[in-house]
Specification:
Chain A: Pfam families: COX1. The complex is a heterodimer of chains A (493) and B (228). Chain A is mainly α and 493 residues long. Chain A is 77% helix and 0% strand. Chain B has helices spanning 2-31, 40-43, 56-64, 129-132, 136-144, 194-204, 216-221; strands at 36-37, 48-49, 162-166, 188-192. A two-stranded antiparallel ribbon of chain B has the order 1-2. Chain B has a two-stranded antiparallel sheet with strand order 3-4. The termini of chain B are far apart. The chains are: A mainly alpha (493), B mainly alpha (228). Chains A and B meet through helix 1, helix 2, helix 5, helix 6 and helix 7 of A and helix 1 and helix 3 of B.
Chain lengths: 493, 228
């Protein structure tokens, strides 16, 4: 079809207007989620510092019962998972779903605010509940049992409009892999969350099986919520910034269905060699290792899409964070495979390596992709540009080094601990040597979380200024690159 | 819209299968589990396996304080780990036992609402702690002031489970025998609360290596459950 320049201009203008209308329709809820998420992220990193110090010096902060390691650590993780992860994830999901499906959010916006407020109240009550002595000790479900229905209801309020948008925009011939992942996350999380909570809180006395279900839940949230949201976001933003289509639709499909088919089976290998019927951890170990296929395929696809545009990684904050996130995805997969299979897994079982895996999954791979998305989305919603390149760079490098240090030290600590536990020479020793051997790693963990806290305090302030509309008034996006910039990425480009 | 329906069906099927096989069916089957009676002739023991569930009130305190962040309750089989050979991790408290402590089965946790199998082993495994536990006073001392027993212990001091009160009249027989830094100032004594007593009851009830009915190897390895 022949189009005249003027009609192309008109098309572009209409397109921009349509985008602006979509942005406007989701602006409030999305910014609300991001801002609260960033607050919880900061809170969680501070708690991470305290918890790591507590493992070295239990009398730090006195012997206050509310701040003992057994309560502080779950509070730290729950703030990271529910306060930051799922909340910020919902914001990214809502925006991408609206944009990608070309649908404005029709009505129900006040309901979304209510759900958002309830989510945050529930998280606050839940975390206080843990600190005040209501912890259930079920991993990632430590919050007192009255909290989960509120969380589930709030989540569903957000998931419903996304499902409607997806349904309206579904075209048989179109291929929209990012919305596939996001719809998947909308659909899997409530199912997993409901199943786990009903099994653990409502069915009495499941004993060791309850522990298995708990482990299944943790890995379900990682692989069927955090992973799809982050991959969906990367599939949206990498082509957007590089201006190239996704390298291979076939790989994208393979990656999606591979994840969908495998991830539901995994998790129980946490208790390999334990009381569960042995096929359950075995199938978890098998699928946990096979997950390398979808994870590798997605990583390859992202790599092929970015190929040739690496200079943009140096300039675009969004691409830089997303690039790092999608680089960490295969690394997360490899660490998970190491933890899952019986030959290396038994050495890393019940060690700090498991924490390293959870942190690289949530803060490493998921959060980096979400930061990338936030750096793209917020200027479009707030109507102003990010104030400071230095703050973004500060956020990137402190987070990168912090997360790298936490993950590496956790893995090495895991090797050390696992080696000590399985060292025949230590069969008749008490645990003091093991405790002493892991002390340096805990000190490193505290320092790393402190670095990350530093970056997130500034991220929160930066985000608050943006939401308040105090950003730069400019039509030019904030880019990281300048001529005399000698960050390693610039050199690499 | 058929394609949309296929997509949703694909999602339901791909996740529904593991959900059904891994969660729903095992949960239904688990609820039918009952304690198994020992056979006097083959097992040489009378009664039921497991003999009794753990102390529930104390487990609530254990869960509340997040003990499972650092303590596991799960002995792994000796072909994959050395847990079973670790001194004092089973019923036998003496030197290296002739056979490793058996690994745990589903039945060991029967009657527990949630089995705190544990997250990280920053402290020793507690699956069979009841056998190696010292007398109550020493466990209380460990909970109140861990560093009075080990200089570098990374265990938190659960001071809130104890009451420091002015000693009146003769010293309470419940009072902790503390010395050195951990001791209260003169004229004061430290007594456990009901919660601390429940927690200790729970710890003493952790004996998850009773012989499994019909497993002769385990019977040969483990002596009959003694009364303690």
């Amino acid at each position: 079809m022949q189009t005249t320049p003027s009609s192309a201009d008109l098309d572009l203008q209409a397109d921009n207007l349509r985008r602006a209308a979509i942005d406007k329709s989701v602006k409030g809820p999305v910014l609300f989620l991001f801002l609260n998420g960033a607050f919880w992220l900061m809170a969680s990193t501070i708690l991470g510092v305290l918890a790591a110090i507590k493992l070295v010096s239990p009398s730090f902060l006195g012997d206050c019962q509310f701040l003992q390691f057994g309560r502080l650590q779950p509070t730290h993780i729950n703030a990271l998972v529910y306060g930051w992860g799922i909340q910020a994830g919902l914001g990214v999901m809502l925006w991408i779903m609206a944009r990608r499906s070309g649908q404005e959010l029709k009505g129900g916006k006040s309901l979304l605010y209510v759900a958002g407020v309830f989510w945050n109240i529930a998280v606050t009550l839940g975390l206080l509940g843990i600190l005040l002595g209501g912890s259930t000790s079920m991993q990632w479900l430590e919050m007192p049992r009255f909290v989960w229905p509120i969380l589930l209801g709030s989540f569903l309020v957000f998931a419903w409009p996304m499902a409607v948008m997806f349904g309206k925009a579904f075209r048989p011939e179109g291929f929209m892999v990012s919305t596939w992942y996001i719809l998947g996350a909308c659909f899997w999380f409530p199912w997993i969350f409901l199943t786990a909570n009903v099994c653990l809180h409502c069915i009495p006395s499941l004993g060791a099986l309850a522990a298995g279900i708990n482990a299944w839940y943790v890995h379900g949230v990682i692989f069927l919520f955090f992973t799809p949201v982050a991959i969906g976001s990367a599939y949206y933003f990498i082509p957007k910034i590089t201006g190239r289509p996704i390298a291979s639709a076939e790989l994208a499909k393979l990656g999606f269905w591979g994840l969908a088919v495998l991830a539901g089976w995994t998790g129980m290998q946490t208790y390999m060699g334990g009381p569960l019927p042995s096929w359950m951890p075995s199938i978890g170990a098998l699928t946990g290792t096979l997950l390398l296929i979808p994870v590798g395929v997605v990583g390859l696809n992202h790599h092929l899409t970015t190929l040739g545009s690496h200079s943009l990684v140096a300039t675009s904050p969004t691409l830089r964070f997303t690039f790092l996130g999608s680089l960490l995805l295969p690394i997360t997969g490899v660490i998970f495979a190491l933890l899952s299979n019986y030959s290396t897994g038994v050495n890393l079982q019940f060690t700090h390596a498991g924490y390293g895996f959870q942190i690289i999954a949530i803060y490493g791979f998921f959060s980096m992709c979400v930061f990338g998305a936030i750096y793209y989305i917020v200027p479009r919603l707030a109507g102003c540009e990010w104030l400071s390149v230095r703050l973004i760079r500060n956020h990137f490098w402190f987070s990168t080094y912090g997360i790298g240090a936490i993950v590496v030290t956790s893995l090495v600590a895991g090797l050390q601990q696992g080696g000590d536990l399985n060292n025949p020479e230590m069969w008749d020793q008490d645990f003091m040597q093991l405790a002493l051997n892991s002390r340096p790693y805990m000190v490193a963990r505290a320092i790393s979380w402190a670095l990350i806290t530093w970056s997130n305090v500034w991220f929160l302030i930066h985000l608050m200024l943006m939401v308040a509309g105090l950003g730069r008034r400019s039509s030019a996006p904030t880019l990281l690159h300048s001529a005399h910039d000698d960050t390693p990425h610039a050199a690499h480009a | 819209m058929s394609n949309f329906r296929t997509f949703i069906l694909g999602l339901v099927a791909s996740f529904g299968l593991p959900w059904l096989c891994l969660i729903v069916i095992p949960v239904l089957k688990y609820q039918a589990l009952q304690p198994v009676a020992y056979d006097k002739d083959t097992d040489g023991v009378e009664g039921y396996y497991p003999p009794a569930p753990v102390h529930g009130q104390g487990q609530i305190v254990y869960l509340r304080e997040g003990c499972s962040q650092c303590h596991t309750q799960m002995i792994r089989p000796s072909q994959i780990a050395l847990d079973g050979w670790h001194k004092g991790w089973g019923q036998d408290q003496e030197a290296r036992p002739a056979a490793p402590v058996r690994s745990n089965t589903l039945y060991d946790y029967l009657g527990e609402h949630y089995a705190p199998l544990g997250i990280v082993r920053s402290g020793p495994d507690l699956a069979n702690y009841g056998w190696r536990a010292p007398e109550r006073g020493i466990i209380h001392q460990k909970l109140f002031a861990p560093r009075s027993q080990h200089d570098w212990s990374n265990m938190p001091a659960f001071k809130s489970l104890y009451i420091v009160r002015k000693a009146q009249g003769p010293v309470s027989d419940k009072a902790l025998k503390l010395t050195g830094k951990a001791a209260p100032e003169a004229g004061y004594e430290v007594v456990p609360t009901a919660e601390a007593e429940a927690l200790v009851d729970y710890l003493l009830s952790l004996k998850k290596d009773y012989p499994v009915p019909g497993v002769s190897a385990a019977v040969a390895a483990a002596p009959a459950p003694a009364k303690k």
